[in-house]
Give the backbone structure.
Amino acid sequence: MRTRSNTRNKTGRTTRRGVSRMNGSQDSRRHALEAWVAQQLEAMPSWTVASADASFRRYFRARLGEGEAERSYIAMDAPPEREDNPAFVRIAELMAAAGLNVPRVLAVDYEHGFMLLSDLGTRTFLDVLDADNADALFGAATGALIDWQQASQPGVLANYDRATLGTELELFRDWYLARHLRYTPTAEEQADIDRAFTFLLDEICAQPKVYVHRDYMPRNLMVSHPLPGVLDFQDARYGPVTYDLASLFRDAFISWPADRIDGWVRHYWDAARERRIPVGDDFEAFKRDLALMGAQRHLKVLGIFARIAHRDGKPRYLADTPRFVRYLEPVVAAYEPLNGLAPLLAKSAP
């Protein structure tokens, strides 16, 4: 059986939050965004909130017309001092050139951090995934992922390098342990953490490099034509070949039986080898690489969810931290350099 979280806050999905226009004193950025979009469309659309994600971006759906004549757009509010909007546009173009179905950037105001995008719909994979359709949806997702990876070239995207991966791991120590659990590891435990992190970084950095979406999971994949629509790609890098697969099958909000994941991973690996993606010729070695890459991501996400809760005031993500602990437990037990993390993962918040 799959298990699913009740956490729902997905990019591109209409929510039940207020649909009327806020006045300038309540939300000056939204007021300015709506005025800018109306100027681009040369019409006054109706508005709903599409979503707000874990970053500083917000998305609103603008509709013109009714019934079969209705046209729908996504307006993005991304404060330029907080978000790299040129990167969003550049990576959208790169993904589209690779054949992926991503939002088209119809207009952009870099100075104010506004964009007008095509609308890929309201249903994410997370909304609709079930035991019956998972093979088809994950098959489409891995097919698009291989298209993205096959387009890879060094020097185009920033490197997802050891320093970046290491900084991400430190979120576990700084935010999950110290801030969320309010626990200060002993000197021996600090040494265990250091050893585990060094082992993970050594193994991960030895993997072949491809384009990496960095958040390729069901809540960022849309039920759109062609499948899937791909969102939340602005942090893409050039990095480990297993990263996006770990994101897809060890998701923050839904879990699957190990035998089904093994089948999907094998399907990906077979197809990737045919397309000359550098996944190697030993499936068991690839699964090992995937497990260790997943461990890095899971430790990072524990730290990120703690940071979002305690720094940004969004505690709902903490409900899914036990899922990542469960993902980590068998990997930590299987690899001796990671064994020292087990007692820390067993701790709970005060």
Summary: The mean pLDDT is 92.
